[in-house]
Amino acid sequence: MRILMLSQFYPPVIGGEERHVRSLGAALAARGHNVAVATQWYPGQLETEDDLGVAVHRIRGTMQRSARLFTDASRRHAPPFPDPEFTLGLSRILREFRPDVVHAHNWIVHSFAPLKHRAGAPVVLTLHDYGMVCAKKNLMRGEEVCSGPGLVKCLDCARGHYGALKGGVTTLSNWMMNGFSPVDKVLTVSSAVAEGNGLAARGIPFEVVPNFIPDDAGLADGAVDPLLEQLPEQLFLLFVGDLRRQKGIHVVLDAYARLPDRPPLVLIGRPCPDTPAELPDGARILTNWPHASVMRAWHRAAVALAPSIWPEPCATVVLEAMACGKPVIASRMGGMPDMVLDGETGWLVKPNDPADLARALSRLLQNPDEARRMGEAGRRHVAAFEARTVVPRIENVYLSLLQRRAA
To answer: The pTM is what?
Structure first.
């Protein structure tokens, strides 16, 4: 098949969604498909390149020209409406590549909408977040999970996040464009994403297909890595992710401070404006680690911590920890229950509850045999989230759409 994927970001811009797109493209190419990716261009990046057998096309967009429109100028998100220049560049790629299937990820699909009839190919949309109903994409209102969309409520919330003008335009555009979706099949990375976007209630057919990790993700490569010298010599607790409140970093630090005779705590991730300036004794922050070094760190850790306070859709970092045989303590919300089997591969705790997290940590630290058993169970369970399992499921979605079209 000739498969064109649409992604607002692509490496070297790094995050869970773009890592998923890259891994999926490479896996499909390795299985004999002709794969291309259309993504947004950033200064200093090549407009075209071959990446792991995938043809990457970076297109300049109208909305990308003004850094002032974005909170983070290094991550200029695709708008919830067609971007004129991106749509124009995409039309050229469609003429040259002539895809059998188009697979879009989140809001970038709107820039394809005007081209759907001309493309003549079925469209798959993977939802990695709650962007179909939430302009902020995280389904959070303040520090509480939102009860559901409402135009007045959403306008107020988005204005507080983006500012009056951008918040209003983003919300209204998102509401209007959902009625003009060019999508033939929706995939969601977790059951929480399907529920949060209200797919069943709106009669939108969907299938839950999670993020995946490489088949060999849990194998230690034994490479010499100077960064590992920054890790404690003894076993330690490990948190990996953006060092921000939404990821639960304040919950981790509060729970850690409650532990008697605590082991070291390591936090690896990207500093954010709300990253705590002070840490309890025994905790350390490490930044700018490449992914390969993070995977080596998992092999040295004792317990993985993922206490997000937002309904995180499908945290790949949890799967990577499980692949390395580590028990996971995660929040009982979002996509975490799809990945962590409570009491079998780790513990699910109350969101934003340091005391509950501390209790779960104490139990694992005081019962190393239980921690070991959970880690091994996680290593077995993660097979359902490996490329060899998930990629054929996505292939079958493509094939079913093509067969339906042929019929």
So the answer is: 0.93
